[in-house]
Amino acid sequence: MKVNWEGVYPAVTTKFTADDHLDHEMFAKNIEAQLSAGVDGIILGGTLGEASSLMEDEKDELVKYTAELAKGKVPVVMNIAEQTTKGAIKAAEKAKANGANGLMMLPPMRYKADDHETVTYFKAVAQSTDLPIMIYNNPVDYKIEVTLDMFESLMECENIQAVKESTRDISNVTRMRNRFGDRFKILSGVDTLALESMLMGADGWVAGLVCAFPAETVAIYRLQKAGKIKEARDIYRWFLPLLELDINSKLVQNIKLAEVATGIGTENVRAPRLPLHGEERKKVLQIIDEGLKNRPVLPDYLNI
Questions:
Q1: pTM confidence score
Q2: What percent of the chain clears pLDDT 70, i.e. is strictly above it?
């Protein structure tokens, strides 16, 4: 299935049972909510997916199961976050064999590669697969920035097609457009900058709070795409306190708590992560409760 790299791509959470196994039932319930809301793809194994704590067989199982659930309606994208080039190439091979339609790629993990090493890493993986690739550019959290000059070098790899733009510098959307035109699709990777990024020319949104609020997220994207900026902005302004739960070190726990509130998830996380407790939990619940209390009535955004 072709990956267009446009629209809303949820970076979905991985659902666990209380005894720390994959929770297929709740995962399927959440994916169905995403599909019903009109998302344009599903991304597995990102930060929200707790990829660093998943076993290899669990990653394989997740891709296979998600491909079954998606039934060709939307593409399934697997994140590649590996320590070695060899490991990344193997992960890409397995993702394809298990049914993934595309890859999202972080720079090498742990070792802080320089620009040349990072570009060589991306090229090696791209040349090993025919799957389309989105580069995840998040220097704030992962300490390596993929610069414009590095993207210039990556242009020779036709299957490197998109960037998840998470530099927190909104002008980077314009810099990418000025330098590369439409060569790379741009998807905002920061919930609190998503509408601003799309208004500046980003093609879509790799979203976090969509895990709990899929309809509202897709509505914002579809409305701004249709030129209904005020309608999109009104929903976004309501959404912002919730979106801020994504730019926090406890984003996984925050968003899973929001999923509980909307009936499409559980709080179960994999240790060493633990569910929120005490005052921290109380504050997050207050934000979620306030959002639910004032949840907007959405227009018929799927038919505009």
A1: 0.97
A2: 100
